[in-house]
Amino acid sequence: MGAFESLDVGGSTARLYVAGDFAPGNPGVVVLHPWWGLNDDVIAYADRLATAGFAVTAPDMFGGQVASTIEDAERLSSSAESPGAESAVESIALAAVDDLAARLGPTSRLGVLGFSFGAAYATLLPAERDRLVASVVYYGVYTGEHLARSSAAVQGHFAETDQFESDEGIAELEDGVRAAGREVTIYRYPGTRHWFAEPSRDAYVPEAADLAFGRTVSFLRTRLVPA
Q: How far is CA 116 from the centre of its chain?
């Protein structure tokens, strides 16, 4: 449905998947991949968002590398967040936001959505770009002072049992966003584990994934489509 293009990142380039209608003023969403990389699950999700009426871009923050095992994914994400490299990942994500803003023009409303590894940046980026008025996170937590530097509304989708995210961490995210005066809604999905929304993973639960997707689309439409 979509296509790969080249994203300018301050003189270097990264791959960028694009899908949907990029007419000026349309609502736009940047999708940030999990620690597996920009794989078929993320591309399919971007296509679904495009079908739902959003202009969607998904940057490749791992230079074309895709992992299928936890061991390889840990290696990729650790390398991406090693000293000096973490800023490069953030630069790619921010470049994707700026690129989408340029494509859609100044009247469009933009959101950001991230899975796991990407969810951390979906939490951080609204503090760096005020064009982002909505943030959706799938089973990923990143807290800190940046929560007070954004006005974006937040929607979170979390598993009932998660070996990577604690109840305390999720509560800290929710409390931090609310303390900043921002709207936040957190959903928990019974009988699920981390990666429940990714079809290629053993933890995939179609019913929960579809429910989360429907909630995501409703949230994004409310925030990004003018009444």
A: 8
pLDDT of residue 170 exceeding 70: yes
- How far lies 69's CA from each of 36, 74, 140, 201, in Å? 8, 9, 19, 10
Tokens at residue 69, please? 């095992």
Write down the pLDDT at residue 1.
81
Across the range 18-35, mean pLDDT stands at: 98
Q: What is the value of pTM for the model shown?
A: 0.96
Helices 86-104 and 117-124 pack at an angle, to 10 degrees, of: 60
Please report the pLDDT score of residue 86 as a whole number. Answer: 57
Q: How far apart are CA 174 and CA 180, in angstroms?
A: 10
d(CA 123, CA 113): 9
CATH for 40: 3.40.50.1820
Domain that holds residue 68: 3-224
